[in-house]
Amino acid sequence: MTASRTGSERLWHRPFRRSDPRTRCAAPDGQAARPPALTGGPHRQARPHPAPARPDAQTAEEVARLSLPDGTELLLRPAGPADKAAALAMHGRCSPTALRLRYHGPVRDADRYLDHLLDARHGRSLAVTAPDGRLLALGHLMWDDGEAELAVLVEDAWQRHGLGLALLRRLTAAARAAGVGTVYAVTQAANAALIAAMRRLAAPLDFRAEDGTVVITATLAAGTAPTPTPAPGR
Q: Of all helices (H) and strands (E), which one includes residue 153?
């Protein structure tokens, strides 16, 4: 994902119609526009970078170790432009099904797409890496006016180990630290793993569905989110 819920701001999700006057607003001067959609449809404009409101809160800049039940030690860390090659390699290892659930269609020009996602001007990105340095999962928090969008992609062989949930928890903590009180994920109704992980965020959720596309909105309470720990699930 990195698309807005609004019609003309949609980037590469399947259609989800929502009336919103923000779709008529131009980006402030000096801000970069998003690249063309990978799966069709118009691009949207980049949004301002919110300043962190609570420096004491857990943020996306922190590094954490994730211990799986089998003893495997993984690293959850910030991701950026230097991770592009590893991210492309991970995309190459993902199945068409995993990519379709993540991007709602065939992925075109992923090279250019990742340039945008990994750019800190547009949000925050996190990676989960293996002991040998391979990138196993990617998570993104994309600024969207006073809200932010959540998105995760977990390599098939590493799904059902709690990596997606760990990313979502850390990203929602980063949103809270930036003063963002509402985050949302746009996905397909068939993406049971992401929907289940969103339910485990311990935040009030609102679900809106249309033609197989689901928008899940979470309202974040004040205070620091729990440290992410792997659990069964995506």
A: strand 147-154
Which helix H or strand E contains 75, and what residues bound it? strand 73-79
Identify residue 106 by its one-letter amino acid code. P
b (16+ CB within 10 A) / e for 42-55: ebbbbbeebeeeee
**Which pTM does this prediction carry?**
0.73
Which ranges constitute the DSSP H helices of 96-210? 96-103, 110-117, 163-177, 192-199
**pLDDT grade, residue 100 (50/70/90)?**
confident
Contact by Cβ (8 Å): 80, 125: yes
Residue 33 gets the label, from left (phi > 0), alpha (psi -120 to 50) or beta, of beta
> Could you read off the pLDDT of 190-208 as tens digits, one per residue?
999 999 999 999 899 999 9
How far is residue 174 from each of residues 2, 59, 171, 212, 217, measured CA to CA in Å? 17, 4, 5, 29, 16
